[in-house]
């Protein structure tokens, strides 16, 4: 299981988890070390697996020892390292997501209830406003989310990140955290692995590369020069020529960057 998927499980679980939650390997302590989880004291209860009928029992502290009472076996000691409890640090997760996506307009407190605004991420074609809601598995979750979003200025493109569930919500695309990002357990770095624009359903204007405000003019200009046999062989030299022609034709427009011109030249030569 990936670190992000594990974090999803922990968030979806809703409360504290113990150090040996889900098998007890070191994924959880690594997530805690990197700040995705914080220590939240000691578990309030455990499941007794010492007797025949598994039951939950409150954790008690007696005679300098942690333990629980089993109706069959009496007081049973508990290993304190197994009792360390962790909770997801949602504000920190929102911070890291916001940073990794290069978001503006991040909100440092929740919008309302458990809904957070990660911020506006600039994608190829438009800005996408990203939100986070821990679980979207029930109608109640959907209501909470709608309630929170009603307080927000309406953005044209929105995407809701969640840790569990994919309840279809009209007009609100959703994505699971582990499908949007991955977490490196060694460094703690969070990396975005999917395009929020695509996930939000934005039409892709220019699949070949970043769009440029100059594309509408540069493309025909460059293609025209190729057709007319006016283009020179070297990309750098041709970019210089294109720049001069552009400047002469459109004296009032800002001159496109050399890299943008070269990108369009390469694109035209590839025939894409
Ligand atoms: Zn028992």
TrEMBL record:
Domain of life: Bacteria
Protein name: Uncharacterized protein
Species per Swiss-Prot/TrEMBL record: Litoreibacter ascidiaceicola
